[in-house]
Each structure stands twice: as C-alpha cells, then as structure tokens.
Amino acid sequence: MALPRTLLITGGAGFIGSNFVHFLSHFHPEVQVVNLDKLTYAGNLKNLEGIPLDGSPTPAGFRHTFVHGDIQDRRLLAELFVRYRFDGVVNFAAESHVDRSLQGADEFIRTNVLGAHELMRVCLEHRCRLLQVSTDEVYGQLMPDEPPFTEESPLRPRNPYAATKAAADLMALSYFESFGLDVVITRSSNNYGPRQFPEKFLPLAITNLLEGRAIPVYGTGENVREWLHVEDNCRGIWMALTRGRSGEVYNLGGRDEVQNIEMARRLCELLGVDPEQGIRFVRDRPGHDLRYALDSSKAKRELGWEPQWELSRGLEELVRWYRENEEWWQEIRSGEYRKYYERHYGEKID
Ligand code: NAD
Ligand code: TYD
C-alpha cells in the first residue's frame, strides 16, 4: 500500500500497541494516529507518556488522538471512519494472557474474535487495509526435534487464548478470499521490552526478584519460547503493513529459543540473586505448549525484515527499564493485580 497518512491503532495503550505508537512518533511522525483502546486491566495511559492524547502535535509533528472505546462498538467505528478516513488499521486490541483465558474465555471470544470481526467489516466497507496482529501460538506446540513453523504449518491452537487468535486469523483470511478484504497478518513469537504488564513471564520474574520474591517457574521449566524484542516486532508490523501482500501471513520470530528455566537463571544472574532463592517450581499450566519456534524467512525475503536486537543486550536493557520505572509497575502490582496473583499463584503452590 502507499504510505499511510492516517492510521487507526487499536489496543494502543497496551504493551505492544503503545510501543508501536512510540515507534511511529520517532520514525514516522508524519502518520496521524487515532488510538482506540478500552483500557482494560492491561491498558494504561501511562504507557503513552510524552505523547499528547488530544491530537496536538509533538515537536516532530506527530499527532495522536486517544479514544476510549471498544472495538466491538460498531457505531463508534463507523463514526471514527467517517471522521478520520483511515487508510490503515493495526489491530493490537486483545485479551492476551493464556493463564487468564484458562480461568474464563468469554472476554477472549468477545474481543479477539467478535471485536476483530467488527474491524474486518468496517475495513471492508471502507476499502481500508487491516493489519491483524496475531501470534505463533495459533500453530500449537512443537517437539524439540521439529523444524520451526512456517506460514504453511497447520493451525492447531491448544489453549483458549490461542484458539481465539486462530479464529480471527481464519475469519480474516476468509474475508480476503470471499470479499477481497485487504488484510495482512503477522504472527510473532513472545515479545519482551518496556511497559509489558507484569503478568507475563519476563516482567513478572523481574519485578518479583526486585521485590525479593522468587520466580514461579511452571512445571519443570523445560518449555521453550522464542524471544523477540518489541521494537523488532513493531518494525516488522510496519513493514508488513506498508509492504506486505494482501491475504498473506508473515511470521516474525526472534531467533533466540530459550528454556524457561534457563531464562529464569539468566534473570537471577542479571539481578544478582542466587537461583536457589530466586527460582521456585510451581504447578504447571494445563495444556502448556512445550515449544514455539518460527521460520521467519518469508518476512526476510518479502519485507526485508530481520530482528536486530540481540537477546543478552535486550535482557540487560529490560532489567534496567524495570529498575528505573518502579513507580509504573508498583502501581499495577498494588491494584487488582494483587488479587489475580494470589488467586493464580496461591493455588499453584502446593
Ligand atoms: P496487552 O494485553 O498488553 O494489551 C492489549 C490492549 O488491548 C490493552 O490496552 C487493552 O486495554 C486493549 N483492549 C482489550 N480489549 C479491547 C477492546 N475490546 N477494545 C479496545 N481495546 C481493547 O497485549 P499485548 O501483549 O500488547 O498484545 C497485543 C497484540 O499482540 C495482541 O493481539 C496479542 O495477541 C498479540 N501478541 C502478543 C505477543 C506478546 O508476547 N505479548 C506475542 C504475539 C502476539
Ligand atoms: P507467558 O509470558 O505467559 O507467555 P506465553 O504463555 O504466551 O508463551 O509465558 C511464557 C512462558 O513462561 C510459558 O512457557 C509459561 C511460562 N511461565 C512460567 O513458567 N511462570 C509464570 O509465572 C508465567 C506467567 C509463565
């Protein structure tokens, strides 16, 4: 597509979405952004610090307007499209945590499937490109000796979160085939970076260690995740949005596969904590996918994308960010989060 002038970003007060807004403000300030977010427990306006919310320009000329609302709100979407005439939508809005989806999937179905479908409808009506942000989890799990997933691998999601993301991917591709919706899907591996909500493994581990608690490692800790710095993901999403072929899927993998136990040890080392004290094995997550790994050669070939962050440096920077932004995560950890933590981890510790 031609370079977008006006973008609708959904879920832009969450982890990856807010990093994408910061990415645009630095590298593409000419793009005008409307950011629609429901501000669930995971959405936080502090993630947008330094960026005006009312459309007034930054010194670089970047304009960002925050709209508090739900992607399921058809009338609101219609109004926004008439008012701003978007030429692209990037959908980050989601319920994103596997453990919460195991406690109840209603909200996951509503936002990740029905909400995503509303965006497909409105994009089709206005002939607007939709970038659907998806995940490696739609492919299910890999065994240690299997080759990484390609975009052709079958979808075999194994937890409710992953199933809702797969459902949205399939709806989007069906809209491409049936109606010609201009849609591109990115499937990234596990992201890490600043402003990630501390329910996810790395920020939970780091903030626990900073508070003198242990890292709860599920099961034996042999599960493998492939880590991608959020800035690399944001660059990949931008490239897929602007250069990707309609109806195509692009894997964005981080290359670095690490067992959880190894990751926990590395974090203990970075924070100067004895792993004997800093790691505690807890009851496993049901249906815990053993391994994710992506073959990202298509993104390299077609988009010219490759991850640039090196994991060791990324982890050092990550620890530094959480050390320097204690106020940000202390506020989260003192609220509803505390109840979630007690409920979830209390019952895991036999
Ligand atoms: P997040 O939970 O940090 O943020 C989600 C944001 O969406 C929040 O700001 C929330 O308020 C908003 N939101 C939720 N429901 C909404 C609704 N109905 N309407 C409008 N806004 C709503 O999630 P994240 O980690 O930033 O993930 C963003 C996207 O990337 C998700 O689609 C997720 O599936 C995908 N993804 C994440 C990862 C990862 O490692 N975090 C990896 C691959 C893919
Ligand atoms: P998570 O950050 O929840 O992402 P995902 O489930 O989408 O991969 O978890 C990353 C890995 O860390 C996963 O294998 C589960 C594991 N994990 C723990 O061992 N302990 C924890 O407290 C959490 C949240 C995750």
What can you tell me about this protein's structure?
It is built from 13 helices and 12 strands. By secondary structure, it is α/β, with parallel strands linked by helices. The mean pLDDT is 97. The strands form 3 sheets. It has a 7-stranded parallel sheet with strand order 3-2-1-4-5-6-10, with helices on both faces. A 3-stranded mixed sheet has the order 7-9-11. Helix 6 packs across helix 11. The chain has a domain at 6-192 and 228-254 and 291-309: NAD(P)-binding Rossmann-like Domain (Rossmann fold), CATH 3.40.50. It is globular and about 55 Å long. The longest helix is centred in the N-terminal third of the chain and has 20 residues, at 106-125. 43% of the residues lie in helices and 17% in strands. The site of nicotinamide-adenine-dinucleotide has 30 residues, from helix 1, strand 2, helix 4, strand 5 and strand 7.
Element-by-element helix/strand order: EHEEHEHHEHEEHEEHEEHHEHHHH
At the first level of CATH, what is the class of the domain at 6-192 and 228-254 and 291-309?
Answer: Alpha Beta
Mean pLDDT: 97
Number of helices: 13
* C-alpha-based Rg, rounded: 19 Å
Query: What is the first-to-last residue Cα distance?
Result: 54 Å
Features of this protein?
Rossmann fold; 17% strand; 7-stranded parallel β-sheet; binds nicotinamide-adenine-dinucleotide; alpha/beta; 350 residues; 12 strands; single chain; binds thymidine-5'-diphosphate; 13 helices
